[in-house]
Inverse folding.
């Protein structure tokens, strides 16, 4: 019954009018209930050591302080998403710089912070394992290595005409959501508690809060109206703060709120994993990869968190869009004395993809051909060359088509020639150009997470209340699901109210992650609508004595055979006739499975595709560069909302560009994180937006799987379009000196670029 | 003490507040929570609000609206000013044109940075009639967004401001006479002198209005902290939870806000903000236009002063190297007298200056350029907008037939103070036309400086890139094809080739 009146239209974000007036409420904006207390943490200033003394005397006496919490005061100390291996507060030993050692409770945020600074901690420092190299050489791992294998990589490499080996260092990334972690715990009655948490995962917060308080899940309600950005950083890392608030709230029987200062947020919470990729490749004279072996070593930090799934996704994306008949990918989970790295948009996929794209680029340089040719000869095809190293058949491949279209639209060939001419004429300035493709697998690779629920109420006045398990972090999930619901009932979008995510309304939800929000919750919400509609249709058919097929919901009217009436009147009538006007809905993704032992299966329901051309100019005297032009063609299936999807593509690209260009996390040799604020950690600013920035959503296409209105997930895939920018920088360096094979790492900051060029400068 | 707030008809009382309270804290404590804290360090702009103040233009009193970072401005510094926050833009149900443009162009996603962007756009709306991308980059240089990738926000800026002529006047234009009268009345008060009882002790705040009064209050309180804009100093409050027990705000001292454009020199009062100084500076040193864009974000330049940038003696302040290269002198004053110090002699160690107790910087005097003189500046940082220098180089070179006659070069980021490079100056003169200029420059730099490795750059990069900057400057003067990519018009480089 889709009319395209609502679904598929570029409708602005449901909160946009509130965002611009500052009236959209975030947790720290909520009026504090009477007597609300505030938390601040005491953090470790060393990476590894034995705690010898924690002196809280001065802090306890400080102005406005109510109490100080230490590990010994907490009955159930450890939490974690998979393993409970993360103490809420360090006990006896600190395992990373910035680990929380104590929590101070005071009458204001400022007083709590001031008192926290008065806690004296003495730590006997121990040797810290900081880097990936140190962890690898000391065999410091969180789990055994993961593997994905196809064919015989070693044999194929050894018998290949050409061989290539190398190492690529891939930096991590701080989420830098503008709203830091924040939680507010309000004790109610009978050991019950309402917790407002800025989290992508209300259910996990609920379960962990219940765990640390030793109460059943049903005693805790977690509510999330919106986050000021998440990007994966609030998938598991929101729990610690919420749990500490809840413990204090239970103890003091008063509401407790905590928000982290930016520095504490950066120190306490995980980041995108940094990696070292060691590779060995065999290829023929056309650049076709015959055998490939990549060892990925990921810095996971001190605890497991989601690292296993993240590194698994790295291995699942090390093929990107390329058919690799003989591949061996291994992933090492390095345990280090650094903060526990966590989910971040792309979830390991970007690192796998960067590794293979770097290899393709290097093959092209060695063969002295354009890298696009090498990409094309290796692309997956339709009927043959379509099996991934983990044995999933790529059924929906459109990368060849997307690439052809983008090459045409971006005028790739002509620009390549122009750039060659420019480079000939310029000694100190060099340009680079690159096209990179994206194929991103959609579904949680942990199959059980691919389920969702929704709850839809139709009230007597015809207004509709929608609740589902997904959370809103700016990505426009709520408006998309509201569009689905409005479309089902054939009513105006204004009739649908999306409400704060609450564990009391839809239970046991999965995190809003893996780009799956609209896929899962859209289907669940539609199912709820379908159930209500079937009640309505059955009633109308009986009441008006008409065929069910003669009943239609369209443009706020209900067509009942010859009659029609307004939706609102019809609903009122249904209510008077005792029709059930609310329902839940449930959805689980079909077709997916994965055999961990055999390392074979279909972890992904489908793939999202895209491609991007970047052009950069590099100043060889300084290493500075400027991204001049970006052309993107991206596949979102049949878009639910092109305005929202466009926002995800553009925003994802720039965030990926930040990861690969200016965003550099730095630790000193003892494991102290040095980049702890916006003055030292540089996310893209307005001037980094390329002057030519042409972004197109691939038109006239729909998902070949039966997703919600044939749309595709869009949250993560566009981030990886920015790999083309990094490749273009690499290309410019190569264009400056064809013999320069020194090897660019990521992020390609100006200094990194400078030293890759330095043999011509010095 | 009063300020005018948003669309209120009558002034708002600031209340008895700790002088260490920031504008952002004051707003949020008073239920104006639309203004957000993103970093509490003036780096992200989520806290941006707009301040209106009475200024003289062509001998007429006008209100000028400018964006500031409320997270590092003191609430007391709002006394007598018009503070406009995101709550103050819409008129009833009607969104302000900049708000409407942000909605229409999908300029918000998570919405947390949005109030800050809206306020920067609001300031642009009041200060610009026609936009180009350079102006947008300038106006939004202090606002970080992690969701949108900026493209829709740029579109919103264009559509809101370029459509301005078609819109009805907003509240602030419609009511400017009334606002002006209110502000004039609020500023009739003389010196602000406050004290706040805090757990038994008292915290003082002074904002004298004349040089004489400043001398007096400093003489009585030589240990008090002197604050102009406070964009650096207030980080101690927000980042290190420090509390100052006596703050003397010099930004209201009339004499310190003067710019004297004399025949052979330009004298800039120490409380003149960067934004206010910029037109005079650019007039005589056009090179500084792009440099000042790189220098800091607009909200910082609207609030930070040249005097403060010198007095804090940061080794990575950008203006000192330029002023050293230009042979600037400082006028230092205390009650007992006035003295003049060359800027290059003013910095005596890491964050240490020649200032004596009770002494303050009154003005900075820069000799005007001779005809054959050329100033060249380069800044290396991790990001072009809103970033701190890894290296900042300023070269003031006097040319005759394109040959250097004399040169002064100074660096920031290369030492524990901003510092002149005298050996390097000689190298430049000796090797001007020689191949080995960069090599020799590198050796000279290595002898004169021992830069450190930190988050912004390694010591080796600092040395090597500095040497190359010298070479680049020479190439630039000789007319070779080099470019400052930060200031390059993207379009032209993309279209060209």
């Amino acid at each position: 019954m889709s009319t395209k009146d609502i679904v598929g239209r570029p409708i602005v974000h449901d909160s946009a009018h509130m965002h611009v007036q500052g009236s959209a409420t975030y947790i720290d904006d909520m009026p504090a209930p009477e007597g609300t207390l505030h938390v601040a943490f005491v953090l470790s200033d060393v990476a590894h050591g034995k705690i010898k003394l924690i002196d809280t005397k001065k802090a306890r006496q400080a102005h406005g302080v109510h109490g100080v919490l230490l590990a010994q005061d907490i009955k159930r100390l450890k939490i974690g998403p998979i393993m409970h291996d993360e103490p809420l507060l360090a006990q006896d030993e600190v395992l990373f710089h910035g680990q929380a050692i104590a929590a101070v409770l005071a009458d204001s945020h400022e007083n709590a912070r001031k008192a926290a600074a008065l806690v004296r901690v003495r730590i006997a420092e121990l040797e810290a394992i900081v880097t990936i190299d140190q962890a690898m050489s000391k065999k410091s791992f969180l789990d055994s290595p993961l593997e994905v294998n196809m064919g015989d990589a070693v044999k194929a490499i050894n018998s290949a005409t050409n061989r290539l080996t190398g190492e690529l260092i891939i930096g991590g990334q701080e989420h830098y959501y503008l709203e830091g972690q924040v939680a507010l715990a309000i004790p109610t009655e009978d050991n019950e508690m309402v917790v407002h948490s800025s989290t992508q995962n209300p259910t996990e917060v609920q379960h962990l809060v219940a765990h640390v308080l030793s109460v059943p899940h049903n005693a805790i309600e977690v509510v999330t109206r919106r986050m000021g950005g998440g990007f994966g950083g609030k998938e598991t890392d929101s729990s610690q703060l919420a749990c500490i608030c809840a413990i204090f709230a239970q103890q003091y029987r008063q509401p407790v709120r905590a928000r982290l200062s930016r520095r504490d947020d950066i120190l306490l919470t995980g980041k995108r994993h940094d990696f070292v990729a060691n590779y060995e490749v065999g290829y023929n004279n056309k650049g076709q990869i015959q055998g490939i072996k990549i060892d990925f070593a990921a810095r996971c930090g001190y605890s497991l968190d989601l690292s296993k799934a993240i590194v698994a996704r790295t291995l699942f994306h090390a093929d990107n869009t390329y058919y690799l008949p003989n591949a061996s990918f291994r992933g090492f989970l390095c345990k280090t004395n650094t903060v526990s790295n966590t989910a971040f948009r792309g979830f390991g996929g970007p690192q796998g993809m960067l590794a293979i794209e770097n290899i393709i680029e290097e093959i092209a340089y060695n063969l002295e051909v354009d890298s696009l040719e090498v990409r094309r000869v290796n692309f997956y095809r339709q009927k043959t060359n379509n099996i991934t190293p983990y044995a999933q058949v790529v059924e929906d491949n459109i990368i060849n088509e997307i690439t052809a279209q983008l090459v045409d639209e971006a005028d790739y060939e002509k620009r390549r020639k122009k750039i060659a001419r420019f480079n000939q004429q310029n000694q100190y300035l060099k340009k680079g150009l690159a096209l990179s493709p994206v194929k991103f697998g959609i579904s949680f690779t942990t199959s059980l997470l691919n389920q969702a629920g929704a709850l839809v109420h139709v009230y007597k006045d015809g207004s509709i209340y929608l609740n589902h398990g997904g959370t809103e972090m700016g990505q426009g999930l709520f408006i998309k699901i509201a569009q689905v619901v409005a479309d089902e009932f054939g009513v105006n979008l204004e009739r649908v109210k999306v409400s704060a995510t609450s564990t009391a309304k839809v239970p046991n939800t999965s995190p809003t992650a893996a780009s799956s929000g609209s896929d899962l919750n859209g289907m669940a919400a539609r199912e709820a609508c379908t159930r209500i509609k079937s009640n309505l249709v059955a009633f109308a058919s009986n009441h008006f004595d008409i065929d069910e097929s003669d009943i239609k919901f369209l443009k706020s009217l209900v067509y009942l055979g010859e009659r029609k009436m307004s939706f609102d009147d019809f609903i009122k009538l249904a209510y008077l006739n005792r029709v059930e006007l609310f329902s839940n809905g449930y959805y689980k993704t079909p077709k997916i499975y994965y055999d961990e032992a055999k390392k074979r299966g279909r972890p992904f329901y489908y793939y999202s595709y895209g491609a991007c051309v970047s052009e950069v100019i590099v100043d060889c005297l300084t290493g500075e560069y400027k991204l001049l032009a970006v052309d993107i063609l991206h596949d979102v299936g049949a878009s639910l909302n092109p305005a929202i999807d466009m926002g995800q593509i553009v925003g994802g690209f720039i965030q990926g560009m930040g990861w690969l260009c200016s965003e550099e996390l730095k630790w000193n040799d003892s494991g102290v994180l040095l980049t702890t604020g916006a003055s030292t950690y540089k996310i893209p600013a307005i001037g980094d937006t390329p002057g030519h920035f042409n972004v197109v959503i691939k038109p006239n296409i729909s998902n070949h799987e039966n997703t919600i209105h044939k749309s595709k997930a869009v949250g993560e895939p566009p981030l990886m379009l920015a790999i083309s920018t990094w490749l273009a920088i690499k290309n410019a360096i190569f264009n400056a000196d064809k013999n320069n094979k020194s090897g660019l790492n990521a992020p390609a900051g100006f200094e990194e670029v400078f030293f890759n060029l330095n043999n011509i400068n010095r | 003490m009063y300020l005018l707030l948003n669309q209120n008809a009558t002034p708002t009382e600031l209340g008895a507040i700790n002088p260490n309270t920031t504008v952002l804290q004051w707003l949020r404590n008073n239920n104006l929570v639309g203004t957000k804290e993103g970093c509490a360090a003036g780096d992200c702009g989520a806290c941006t609000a707009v301040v209106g103040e009475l200024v003289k233009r062509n001998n007429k009193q006008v209100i000028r609206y400018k964006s500031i970072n409320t997270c590092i401005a003191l609430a007391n510094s709002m006394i007598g000013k018009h503070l406009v926050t995101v709550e103050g833009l819409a008129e009833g149900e009607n969104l302000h044109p900049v708000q409407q443009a942000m909605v229409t162009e999908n300029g918000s996603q998570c919405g947390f940075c949005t109030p800050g962007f809206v306020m920067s756009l609001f300031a642009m709306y009041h200060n610009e009639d026609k936009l180009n991308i350079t102006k947008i980059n300038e106006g939004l240089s202090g606002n970080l967004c992690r969701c949108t990738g900026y493209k829709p926000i740029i579109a919103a800026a264009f559509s809101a401001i370029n459509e301005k002529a078609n819109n009805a006047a907003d509240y602030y234009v419609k009511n400017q006479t009334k606002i002006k009268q209110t502000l004039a009345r609020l500023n009739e008060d003389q010196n602000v002198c406050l004290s706040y009882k805090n757990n038994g002790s008292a915290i003082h705040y002074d904002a004298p209005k004349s040089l004489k009064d400043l001398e007096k209050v400093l003489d009585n309180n030589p240990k008090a902290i002197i604050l102009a804009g406070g964009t650096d100093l207030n980080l101690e409050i927000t980042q290190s939870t420090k509390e100052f027990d006596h703050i003397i705000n010099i930004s209201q001292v009339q004499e310190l806000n003067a710019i004297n454009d004399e025949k052979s020199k330009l004298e800039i009062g120490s409380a003149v903000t960067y934004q206010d100084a910029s037109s005079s500076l650019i007039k005589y040193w056009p090179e500084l236009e792009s440099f000042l864009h790189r220098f800091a974000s607009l909200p910082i330049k609207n609030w930070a002063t040249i005097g403060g940038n010198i007095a804090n003696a940061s080794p990575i302040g950008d203006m000192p190297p330029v002023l050293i290269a230009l042979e600037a002198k400082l006028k230092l004053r205390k009650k007992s007298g006035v003295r003049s110090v060359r800027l290059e002699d003013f910095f005596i160690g890491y964050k240490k200056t020649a200032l004596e107790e009770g002494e303050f910087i009154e003005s900075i005097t820069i000799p005007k350029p001779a005809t054959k003189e050329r100033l060249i500046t380069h800044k290396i940082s991790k990001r072009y907008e809103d970033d701190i220098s890894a290296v900042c180089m300023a070269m003031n070179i006097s040319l005759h037939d394109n040959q250097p006659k004399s040169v002064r070069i100074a660096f920031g980021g290369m030492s524990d103070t901003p510092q002149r490079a005298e050996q390097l100056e000689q190298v430049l003169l000796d090797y001007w036309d020689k191949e080995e200029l960069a090599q020799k420059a590198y050796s000279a730099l290595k002898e004169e400086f021992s830069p450190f490795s930190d988050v912004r750059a390694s010591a080796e990069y600092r040395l090597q890139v500095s040497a190359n900057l010298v070479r680049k400057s020479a190439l630039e003067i000789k007319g070779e094809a080099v470019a400052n990519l930060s200031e390059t018009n993207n379009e032209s480089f993309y279209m060209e080739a």
In short: Chain B touches chain A through 97 residues (CB under 8 Å). The CA atoms of residues 281 and 288 of chain B lie 7 Å apart. The longest helix of chain B spans residues 459-477.
